[in-house]
Amino acid sequence: MGFSNPDRTQHTGMFWLGQGEPSSPLHFAFTAPSRAAVDAFYEAGLAAGGQDHIAPSVHADYHPNYYAAFLIDPSGHKIEAVCHKAP
Q1: Among 64, 71, 65, 70, which residue's Cα sits nearest to residue 83?
Q2: CATH code for the domain defined by 25-87
Q3: What range(s) does the VOC domain occupy (predicted)?
Q4: Are 54 and 69 in contact (CB under 8 A)?
Q5: Are 42 and 71 within 8 A, CB to CB?
Q6: Which of 27, 34, 55, 76 makes a 20 to 30 Å CA pair with 83?
């Protein structure tokens, strides 16, 4: 798997997949536009078969507005949605 964001002025990027040896578990983090979106990510992920890792909550050890949820996907990868905005 790869990721590229050639135009860093945009909030876009490209992912691609290729054949190869399985990797060790990875951590993918996606910025969410709101805390409600983090909550929706978490609920949808659980409904789709993801495993709870950390329920939606504030992680003040990162910064006061770091609101995130973490799931483990079926391959063992940690998937995070995070909102950096104040409530």
Answers
A1: 65
A2: 3.10.180.10
A3: 1-84
A4: yes
A5: yes
A6: 76
